[in-house]
């Protein structure tokens, strides 16, 4: 009787491990898409994301920028100055979204914003390890939206071999499990404030 259960459990474990290896490879090899888009969208919650969004806007990769999941007390002037940008140059080109408190919330906020403005394509700026889950949530919220990935690698993952350091395993394993939940449509079960 025990042998009957070992085979399916072993198969599930192999599938889980294979998926984890795919996830780690996808995160490590994530490269920015250079195509032009209707807008740049930044998901808050990590260092360098907003700064990267402002830089891409300045480089002309899209005419507008939307920052999703902004803290209720934050304003464009503060964000711009924190990124070393002149807030006056950003007026009318940058919008802030205050409704999202999770990746699923980001997707809903972005979908509503994009539909209102007839946005068909976005350049998504978030951490590389967060990109698979963010894209899964966006596919669910707005299947027709074309998403060009622009991953940002956080400082703690930039060093050679950082993905294999034990201190980063909690982050990567946690994100992999959340990604599996998002793919399965179970992201409502995850309750983190920021991704």
Secondary structure elements and pairings:
Elements: H1 2-28, E1 39-43, H2 49-58, E2 65-68, H3 76-82, H4 87-90, E3 94-96, H5 103-116, E4 121-127, H6 131-141, E5 146-152, H7 166-183
Helix pairs in contact: 5-6, 6-7
Concise structural overview:
With 195 residues, this protein is α/β, with parallel strands linked by helices. It has seven helices and five strands; from the N terminus they run αβαβααβαβαβα.
Q: Overview of this structure, please?
A:
The chain has 195 residues and is of the alpha/beta class. The chain is 47% helix and 13% strand. The chain has helices spanning 2-28, 49-58, 76-82, 87-90, 103-116, 131-141, 166-183, and strands at residues 39-43, 65-68, 94-96, 121-127, 146-152. It has a five-stranded parallel sheet with strand order 3-2-1-4-5, with helices on both faces. Helix 6 (131-141) links the parallel strand 4 (121-127) and strand 5 (146-152). It is globular, with a radius of gyration of 18 Å. The mean pLDDT is 89.
Tell me what portion of residues adopts beta-strand conformation: 5-15%
What is the strand arrangement across the widest sheet?
Answer: 3-2-1-4-5
* Straight-line N-to-C gap: 43 Å
Overall mean pLDDT stands at 89
**How would you describe the shape?**
globular
Properties at a glance:
195 residues; alpha/beta; 7 helices; 5 strands; 47% helix; globular
């Amino acid at each position: 009787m025990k042998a009957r259960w070992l085979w399916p459990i072993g198969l599930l474990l192999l599938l889980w491990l294979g998926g984890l290896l795919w996830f780690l490879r996808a995160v490590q090899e994530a490269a920015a898409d250079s195509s032009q888009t209707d807008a740049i969208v930044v998901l808050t919650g990590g260092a360098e994301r907003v700064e990267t969004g402002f830089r891409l806007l300045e480089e002309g990769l899209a005419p507008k920028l939307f920052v999703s999941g902004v803290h209720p007390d934050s304003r464009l002037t503060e964000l711009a100055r924190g990124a070393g940008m002149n807030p006056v140059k950003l007026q009318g080109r940058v919008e802030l979204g205050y409704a999202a408190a999770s990746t699923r919330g980001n997707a809903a906020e972005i979908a509503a914003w994009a539909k209102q403005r007839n946005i068909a394509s976005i350049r998504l700026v978030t951490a590389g390890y967060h990109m698979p889950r963010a894209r899964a949530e966006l596919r669910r919220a707005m299947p027709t939206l074309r998403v060009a990935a622009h991953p940002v690698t956080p400082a703690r993952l930039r060093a050679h071999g950082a993905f294999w350091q034990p201190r980063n395993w909690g982050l990567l394993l946690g994100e992999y499990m959340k990604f599996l939940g998002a793919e399965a449509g179970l992201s409502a079960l995850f309750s983190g404030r920021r991704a």
